[in-house]
Design brief:
CATH topology: de novo design (two linked rop proteins)
Number of strands: 0
Order of helices and strands: HHHH
Shape: elongated
Largest sheet: none
Structural class: mainly alpha
Length: about 120
């Protein structure tokens, strides 16, 4: 069985864990008929790992770093959505804190991985 490069990238693996948790929130929002929030969160969270995967198929490390920048920006988009959901009381303070902590860590890991490619 063939493997894709991204399957062996630790930041992609962690990104999947975070994305699954964000998709769970999106599914919850669907039950509350908050489709605009759920769709935006779903798209932004999938974009995190999609860009890592897509970038891993690049022919150069420089090109890969561009996709890692997109991925990191999607992390920030998700963080903003989490803040809005919290302000609107659609998620608990504890849920907000947990997801923001994970998103911050993911952002840092993407940055560290990006820097390792530039060496």
């Amino acid at each position: 069985m063939s493997t894709f490069r991204f399957e062996n990238i630790e930041v992609w693996k962690f990104g999947i864990e975070v994305t699954i948790k964000l998709l769970d929130i999106a599914e919850f929002l669907d039950t509350k008929r908050l489709s605009s929030f759920s769709n935006q969160l779903r798209d932004a969270s999938l974009s995190i790992t999609n860009n890592i995967a897509e970038g891993s198929g690049s022919f150069s490390e420089k090109e890969f770093t561009v996709f890692l920048n997109y991925s990191r920006r999607s992390v920030f988009e998700c963080a903003n959505i989490i803040f809005v959901l919290s302000f609107k009381n659609y998620i608990s303070e504890e849920m907000k804190s947990q997801r923001l902590k994970e998103l911050d860590l993911l952002s840092r890991r993407i940055t560290t991985f990006r820097r390792s490619l530039q060496k």
